[in-house]
Design brief:
With 325 residues, the chain is α/β, with parallel strands linked by helices. The chain has a single domain, classed as Alpha-Beta Barrel (TIM Barrel), CATH 3.20.20.370. Helices cover 37% and strands 17% of the residues. The strands form four sheets. Strands 1, 2, 5, 12 and 13 form a five-stranded parallel sheet that branches. The chain has a four-stranded mixed sheet with strand order 8-9-11-10, with helices on both faces. A two-stranded antiparallel sheet has the order 3-4. Helix 2 packs parallel to helix 3, helix 5 packs parallel to helix 6 and helix 7 packs across helix 10. It is globular and about 55 Å long. 48% of the residues are buried. The structure holds zinc ion. The site of zinc ion has 5 residues, from loops. Zinc ion binds next to loops.
């Protein structure tokens, strides 16, 4: 059997850059203004690369991106036509290859569900003191917005490391919210990373009362992130970043390190890393990495969506024990 390879895309939202909202700065490291929005043209370029190489994985949709509205009522400064085009494109071109999920509500300030108002702290800090009783409706709201927009999420992504301080409560809340909104008694979530560890694989996080929750970690680093902070777009630069993950001949790089120690290469990048502050350099880096993986490793690895990984784990739970942290 081939080893699963998968790609995590954190932080996408329709047109709005959640990074622009939460970065706490208004310029790139080299001094260019941070762009607040990404045109749908860049989403189409990403889809071209994903389709060309048959990529599979996980794609977040932040339903109340940057506290600027929501997927159903619309976002400030975003036309209804652009919003609808973005959602339709993700649905037709990225699913089911990518398992779409919420990355909680805003990836910025937490929201008071009873009043709809923004709270004066970010979602990560808010989550750190919550319990399953308060986390469940928050997660359910995020899942409901995606469901209403036409997606079928059975998993969630944690903005930053949302919930890590209260992970047991968080896990119970995810499992309960997924069942409440979708009826599914199996779910996955992405919170943790397993890097520079042998045999890095997903694990069964919770398996109780007929409900199962699988934790799917990133096992690599977002090497495309640096493209946010440089105006460089030349081919040599693109190749040099790709080299860190996988060399041109497919014999070296961090992906090989994971694979050679028995782990699953679960790549991670962010929407802002692919958009590269409007230049799209990260999309080209991904194109190069994916071409190298498929050309040199196709006898060893096979692209899988997060739902496919979930089902692999469920079919053989004993093979996926929880690692020690
Ligand atoms: Zn994120």
């Amino acid at each position: 059997m081939k080893t699963p390879v998968s790609l995590i895309i954190d932080d996408p939202a329709p047109i709005i850059s959640v990074y622009h909202e939460h970065a706490g700065k208004d310029a790139t490291e080299d001094g260019r203004p941070l762009v607040a929005t990404y045109p749908n043209e860049l989403l189409f370029r990403f889809c071209d690369v994903a389709e060309k190489h048959g990529l599979r994985g996980k794609f977040s949709v932040v339903p109340m991106a940057g506290n600027k509205g929501d997927l159903i009522r619309g976002f400030q400064g975003v036309s209804r036509a652009d919003l609808n085009e973005w959602i339709a494109c993700v649905q037709t071109r990225l699913t089911p290859a990518f398992s779409v999920c919420p990355e909680m509500l805003t990836h910025h300030l937490a929201v008071d569900l009873s009043t709809g108002r923004d709270l004066p702290l970010n979602e990560k800090d808010w989550a750190s003191t919550q319990t399953r009783e308060t986390l469940t409706p928050y997660i359910a709201k995020a899942l409901s917005l995606l469901t209403e927009a036409g997606f079928s999420p059975v998993g969630v992504t944690s903005p930053w490391d949302f919930g890590i301080e209260v992970e047991e409560e968080y896990q119970e809340a995810i499992s309960a919210a997924v069942e409440q909104v979708t009826g599914s008694r199996v779910a996955w979530f992405f919170l943790r990373t397993l890097r520079e560890r042998p045999n890095a694989k997903p694990w069964v996080a919770l398996d109780r009362n007929g409900r199962t929750l699988v934790s799917i970690p990133a096992t690599l680093r977002d090497r495309f992130w640096e493209s946010i902070d440089t105006p460089r777009t030349d081919e040599e630069y693109v190749r040099s970043v790709a080299d860190r993950l996988i060399s041109e001949d497919g014999t070296r790089g961090e992906i090989l390190d994971v694979l050679n120690t028995g782990g699953y290469p679960i790549l991670i990048t962010h929407w802002q890393s692919l958009m590269s502050n409007g230049l799209g350099t990260g999309i080209r880096m991904l194109d190069t990495v994916a071409e190298r993986i498929n050309r040199t490793l196709s006898d060893r690895v096979e692209w899988k969506s997060f739902e496919e990984i979930l089902n692999m784990v469920l079919a053989n739970k004993a093979a996926y024990p929880k690692p020690v942290f």
